[in-house]
Amino acid sequence: MKSKYVLMDHGSGGLATQELVQEVFLSRLANPFLCRLEDSAVLEPLKGQLAFTTDSYVVDPPFFPGGNIGSLAVHGTINDLAMQGAEPAALSLGLILEEGLPMEDLHKIATSLAEASKNAEVPIVAADTKVVPRGKADRIFINTSGVGCVPKGVKLGSDLVAGGDAVIVSGTIGDHGVTIMASREGLGLETSIKSDTAPLHKMVYELLKRFGSAIKCFRDPTRGGLATVIHEIASASQTEITLYEEAIPVRPQVQSVCDLLGLDPLYLANEGKLVAVVAGDAARNVVEAMRDDPLGMDAAIIGKVNPVNGPGRGRAILETTIGGKRMLEPLTGEPLPRIC
Amino acid sequence: MIDERYSAPYKDKKLVQAIASRLNMFQERPMRFMEVCGTHTMSIFRHGIRSILPSNVELVSGPGCPVCVTSQADIDAMIGLAGQPGVIVATFGDLLRVPGTKGSLASAKARGARVEIVYSPADALKIACANPDHDVVFLGIGFETTVPAVAAALLEARSRSIRNFFVFSSHKTMPRALHALLADPELRIDGLLCPGHVSTIIGAKAYEPLAETKNVPCVIAGFEPADILQGIYMLAKQVYEGRHGVENCYSRAVTWHGNERAIKVMERAFEPCDAVWRGLGKIDSSGLAISPTLSMHDASKHFGMWSQTTVTPDPRGCLCGEVIKGKKRPPECPLFSRACTPTSPVGPCMVSSEGSCAAYFRYSTPCRQEIAEQQIP
Q: Is the C-alpha dihedral spanning A228, A233, A238, A243 positive or negative?
């Protein structure tokens, strides 16, 4: 009889491991690279500069409205590549499973990994599974690494940001953070909010194709949220950035949960949103183009980059909904541990 | 389900600015108001309210952050509990990183102590039920706002005979502390913006003796920008007209008599005791001890711990005490943003999400220099 739970044996490298790999993963993730089951995948040369990234996923709980740790692990790494303008080519997948993880959960996560990879058209070409004794990990941890190529002529970076540029966000913020918070046991919060986890590389590709060098940089506001990313851009470019709170899209349900728990949506994680800094005169068109994509339908211009010299450089200011002004500082402390 | 429509009108820009412009009628003299509550402090910073106030109105933060006023001795006692074998400490998240004389709950947790973050005392009770072989201690800090829920948990523990549930009470009550604070001749305050949450329990009437004996205007306000501005406006109007009474501009939540049922529950589980407040020192009958009828759930008795009355000095150089009294602003502290930051806090005003040092640090310290929001161009 097949085990209903992950056992230490499944990580032994022996027969049980082979069965697990075949039944759970290869049946879903099959592609010519992975199916060879060799020690490493050998890829075709990429046409452009190589982008390479890695990220580990420890989200608690692993299942949440809008996705699970599997889809998150695919989207997160794809997005990290996309923010550099890279076209993702392949992903690796490393799993650390806790002994006793229900096999049903693993199947669900594998299905989700496979769907996310298929929909994004980025194959998982290398994988590894380890099992650790019960209590030595929390259900499942995933690492994904990704490679991609940056097409010739694409140049992005916070250092290109200059006075006169506009700041755009591709949609509502805080959805993922609030979803995870509300999914945790013991809060008893019922909300209709779901995580925004989604791959952004196709949107990035279209935007770069249409607007080229008018786009200065992309960032995905994951941990630390919008505020932290804006502060980092201001700091790296030695400019001053003003954000308009009124213009920042926040779902009313997200705002309500934040009010209730004393959280600030500007510091909550997003997993399917990007921040773009673009030349001021292109901003309206960029927003229109984002809105053509379902993942960008709530895109909005949320701020501007002020030309400064001397004091004020490297800082971010928020003009609040009531017309007040305050500094926008990066996240300090840990409002919500294990959010992704 | 939570409904945003309830709070949205109180964030309306036109409404807020209309109230702010009416404040300009009272520009003849400088006015200094204390916002007592930590949630007010955070809201004032988050919305940039100081930046839209007339220049003659100054706001100072008061002693209304529960973590900030908890004495060092109590913090040490709580951290000490976390190290004991067979003990699970259940606490609100705010306490986790508060530095004790030696370490914090977070560092105790990292070394293997069982510390569980809970969102309500009822959750701590659940942990006790689920772990009958452990003693579960809920760390009770906070004012009248949170005490009724702790009282209810204690009463339930007794009625269900959950013998492994304990509360370490460092609870405090607000009105007496305000009396003590206003007795300080060095403190120049023209009015109190009274705490909305606490007042839902104790009612507006609780401030009447204060307004009468200390001749200080008291206005109870909610937490949205329009609530706070209206509260400040009503305070300024009282000062301008030479009055000092209790007014309530948070009537959608606060009544004159308060929540009498909650007060009754509180009185069944707790009784007044003397308490040491960080910054304010020992104040008679300003704390709440667990009633003798519930002593089997009293952690201080069960574990033979210090009571609330031990005075220990603040960490060297830390001005949290002065900050809590509204005598110093956080940037005037030599440790602020140098030795003391939210990532490595020295004093509790920096670690608590409602502490005024944390608020100053998070919202108004470009280049880590003293810059009030007014100076942003």
A: negative
